[in-house]
């Protein structure tokens, strides 16, 4: 749809955004055990990264001049971990005031100065999917980021070239929002209707513009521009991948039916605690699941969960990833993935795929990251032990060949922006409910609504 | 209680003594307030006609609103009032690059019945770019006098509101009978800010950015449609009128800049992001964190008004045994304090001409902060430029004001010494050629009288019966550099709130507080009698049109 | 009879975690009997590691442990060759049994109304049939402290074994009164000023209430003394009859709490939370106050702290000489206790000390060291059999014994796995195969 409108704005003087130049590094990692994901485990192997890309993988690689060499003997090298569901590095999470807010985008609220970014890097994470919250049925567009910590420019974190994605949400959260505001949807029936309405409106909008553009004389009044509908049209045309917050099997099934009707194919279910119940249907549709390793029972719709979800989905041929949705869990996603070995005995490679290639596929960035292959980005995590061991400690993390975490030179205070009026001993006692979880974001009470409802 | 009543009451209380020039044509003036002559000659003064220049023993002649001569040899007309300027300094009148000075905050809009939160009416959503700040100007606003007293003669005043509150104007800080007479230039910029509508769309930055793009794109389309229709309507469907989109036409045409209220680095980057996408002329005001985006501001040709709301210098723990960790953290915090303070010099070094914004700073801190900047490579000449010539240029009024030159407006400040030092006072301010005179207090610099000290300063325990039940907490009044400052605390664990507009006169203590209820500012005005250690007051929320009683007992300072 | 049991056990071993329908059908109930667990590597915790060892369980008690144990003729013998046996893991801080579903107020019995509710008994509200209990115990966590929260004196925590049909059957014999020490730290979304004021109020409540409790303890039982259930509960702590679990996290609060405890002359005191214990580890060690800390997998308390501050916290305290037990502070995922211990081990504590922190140290802190926390003759038979190091996620837990009962190795999560791994019908319901 952008194309239709673009012509017009070119006439009107549209200026395109220029991407910031991000640093690219060169590094030679020697003598490591390399967990490639796509080509097995390579012992005693070197990896050469040049200008941010993996240039060669092999034994006894020639050392180019002026390239940092890292002796990784006894260490394990894996692709940088990818978190397909995160809310770190964002200043706002939900535009929850409307049931459909496809027009909003997390790219507008990226906060590159969040210390959580560094802490994620210290857990081997190199890319995150910064998601809109789950307060509304069709929430905002998400933003795929590379964790290039140290900058104050939000644009520096963008995963340049990553496909656009958008958040949908089903079940308790959007219906609770409906009840709080006295609007639809208040049931899972209403959620379906809302999605169908939005797509049908988009089709109408597309037709209106197509008619305008098709036979365009100079003397025609242009239709109204609607960024929300533009975005919905882009979903219909397959330009935006849908990531849908969901828990129960019935609602997961419902969305697949709706998408079949509208011919939309690219679909990942987020959380999807009951995806295991419709694993054959997910596999047949070609939908993916991005799930917690073991979270359950924090609300009714996750009461009938099982930690064996990842194993059941994997065995049924569903592309599955393990995500964090939390500023805490993101620091040890390797460990979260490892739990799939306890719950369903996934192989090492299957477990590692849950946090590398599989989420990369879900985000449409698997041509760039998710495995250690020549030509892919130099996004690498180095561990002292096998990353699926509980005892593994991340040692170094590289993005585009640039080292952003090194445990040997780690210093405690990693803040980029400090409020001069802040107190030195600023202690925050977290409870586990406080982590950056989207399922809690919409619980903020609005004073104004309260006061007025009491009247 | 109606807000207006409180407002005027408060104004009455706050009105300082001053000569209020009244522009009347009639020759008779039973109030005796109008001046005998509007020709003033200040002689033998130290004159700073523009930043970096200096005339010793000079004379400034202002006649009928216009500067007619500046220099050491000036012919003084016989009908002039001659003021001996020996030991006095004269500066061009200051220009405030962004503030609400002169505007009154409109009553909060009632939440419409059956509000459909996804699509609220424009005024509730805060989308009113068609409004001129002139509609909010109020000749009785106390801010006019308080800012003038600091030397400000012109304010770039923006309207109160939310996402798109309206259009700004240049306002003369002068006492007039009608707001129109204050307006130097209307519709200078269209104002945007990252303030969401309470509980409805757009609720926060996410929605605001999207809505903003949507409006801009439609304004482009609408402008084109409208022009097409105007040139020849035959056979065309008539484009609908839309005041919001029409208000954007001059921005789209680049004949009017878009002024973003963007205090943080991220907000400024968002404003520039929209500018990069759309290509409008951008002003950024109220900016507190500029040092990381100097190149971008320069490349994007942004007109910048840096906030004068500077951080307090952090206190360090005075303990030799403090841990290395604490010492390091203090050093890092100080480093950031320095960055805030040094950004003014850094922008200057990059060749960026910028002005100041006083929007979020309390009056008592403005001069103090200007002086503090001198230690950070931003000297009095730089400060004066940012208060006069630079904003004049950025706002397109450098041909009429910003310097003391013959032919320019009679905007000037007369001080008892160099302005940018703590021991000088403003003695007179000329705005549009009218003289405002201030009494210079000898001795103690404090403006808080002993009476106020005894009656008000201290901690009060209040209790108040609100619709939510009994609320308790403390009212803490302190004397900060000669001004009363107050903090409202709540035992229910709500955040502390700084009080505004605190006044105490004739036993009546009045203040107001604002708090953020989901993006909307709600104002409570508290007023009542102080008798001994008891305060018997009424708190009013104009937005909801109700009031409730508040009682407070002052703590014994011994305890 | 004996051979059937043996067969069954072998079946369990062979099938590992992929339990069959047959096993579910037969093993729904726990079984009490005399057991001999043979040929296993036994991690006693208190007496080293025994290779090829045997454990005899009789009447719920460990009757014999060692490499050369005579196996009673009437015991069911289970050969655990190549497997490892550990004492049941103890999670020293959970809400197990009190919270069923996190977002539903009606499904939570954790916080009573009021700031001063010390007489509230967590044990009373424990739901023995909570779905989270089987989920937790099949992971080898056999014992937990379940504790109320909120206010200054939220109530009395209890140690429970994760098997039994009434609270009394679950009660492990130790209680402690929870005190939330006034916190200078902020909670999420709270400003420092709000936190400071809340702290001041809480401090006032704490001290004024404590004065009353001391007075009550003094005059209790005298003629005309009034019955005051809140003070009666507190008086038990005043008189040293009841342990106090004092929740305290920020470094300066820990120091204040040490002072407070000493000033009040309390000796049977445990600090819980202790998130910033690493900052004041020496002072804690000097005070001789044991701690229950965790969750280990936590974000640091300060934005200026190192990423691994929470991971290292147990290790720093332990090395300074503090007795450390661990907790998850969780409900449904208390099963992750071994991984919290594993992180503590990796970040400096070492495997052996980390294992103690979830076994014998916890038992000692609760005063249950004669019953729990190690594999020793005379102790309760709370133990589990694993294919390897329980801190590793690749390890499977094969068998769990609680109070000598062989626990059914199932939970709703396992049942759902069995039902849905290869769902019937699969994608198509209709063409039903008639071949079967």
Describe this structure in words.
The complex is a heterotrimer of chains A (455), B (559) and C (436). With 455 residues, chain A is α/β, with parallel strands linked by helices. Chain A has a domain at 81-365 and 428-447: TIM Barrel (Alpha-Beta Barrel). Helices cover 28% and strands 21% of the residues of chain A. In chain A, the strands form 2 sheets. In chain A, strands 1, 2, 3, 4, 5, 14, 15 and 16 form an 8-stranded mixed beta sheet that branches. An 8-stranded mixed beta sheet of chain A has the order 6-7-8-9-10-11-12-13, with helices on both faces. Chain B is 24% helix and 30% strand. With 436 residues, chain C is of the alpha/beta class. Helices cover 33% and strands 22% of the residues of chain C. Chain C has helices at 2-15, 21-26, 122-125, 132-137, 167-170, 192-219, 229-238, 251-264, 281-287, 309-320, 337-357, 360-366, 412-420, and strands at residues 31-32, 35-43, 49-58, 61-66, 76-79, 84-87, 89-94, 141-146, 155-161, 171-180, 186-187, 243-248, 269-273, 291-293, 324-326, 383-386, 397-402, 405-406. In chain C, strands 1, 2, 3, 4, 5, 6, 16, 17 and 18 form a 9-stranded mixed beta sheet that branches. In chain C, strands 7-8-9-10-12-13-14-15 form an 8-stranded mixed beta sheet, with helices on both faces. Chains A and C meet through helix 2, helix 7, helix 8, helix 9 and strand 17 of A and strand 11, helix 11 and helix 13 of C. Strand 17 (428-429) of chain A pairs parallel with strand 11 (186-187) of chain C, so a sheet runs across the interface.
